[in-house]
C-alpha cells in the first residue's frame, strides 16, 4: 500500500496557501474558525483545530467538535438522507482516526478539520511511530482491526504525513462534501 503525503487536488497542509495567523483558542481548547484562502482558487478554506493532549473522553469530544463544525459549515442539519449519510461518514472517520491514535499512536495530539469547496480533510496528529494500514485480508467476523478498513472505504483518499526530523505523524483522510 502506498501513502501520498498530499494527493492531487487535496487541501494543502498547514503552513501552505496562506493559512494565516494562528486563530485564538477558545476556552474548550478548540481554536475558532479561521478562514484561509486555498492556493490557486477563489474559495475560502475553513479550518478548525481541537487540542486533545491530556483530554479525557477524546473520541466523543472529537465527534462533538466535528459535529459542531459540520453544523457551522451548513452540512448539518442535512436536507436529504444522502447529505445526512455523508455527515455521519465524517463523524465515523473522526472516531476511527482518534481511536487509532489512542490505541496505537500514544494518544492524539490534535484533530484538524479543513474544508474548501467539495472536500473535507480530517487530520489527527500523534506521537506514534507506526504506520496505520487496513488489516489484510479483512475479516468482518473478527473483532477489532476494522478502523483503517472503514476509513479506506469511506474516504476519497487517506495517508500518513511525517515531518522530517520530528517525531510522530499525522494521519489524514479526505471525504467529499455532501451535495
At a glance:
This protein is of the alpha+beta class.
Q: What distinguishing features does this structure have?
A:
single chain, 179 residues, alpha+beta, 3 helices, 6 strands
Describe this structure as you would to a colleague.
The protein is an alpha+beta fold. 26% of the residues lie in helices and 22% in strands. The chain has a six-stranded antiparallel beta sheet.
Number of strands: 6
Query: How would you classify the helix and strand content by structural class?
Result: alpha+beta
- Into which percent range does the helicity of residues fall? 25-40%
**Beta content:** 15-25%
Major sheet description: 6 strands, antiparallel
Radius of gyration: 16 Å
Strand order of the largest sheet: 1-2-3-4-6-5
Low-confidence stretches: 1-41
Distance from N terminus to C terminus (CA atoms, Å) equals 30 Å
Oligomer type: single chain
Q: What is the typical, i.e. mean, pLDDT?
A: 78
**From N to C, what is the helix and strand string?**
EEHHEEHEE
Number of helices: 3
Secondary structure: elements and pairs:
Layout: E1 36-37, E2 44-51, H1 58-72, H2 81-104, E3 108-116, E4 119-126, H3 147-154, E5 157-161, E6 169-176
Antiparallel strand pairs: 1-2, 2-3, 3-4, 4-6, 5-6
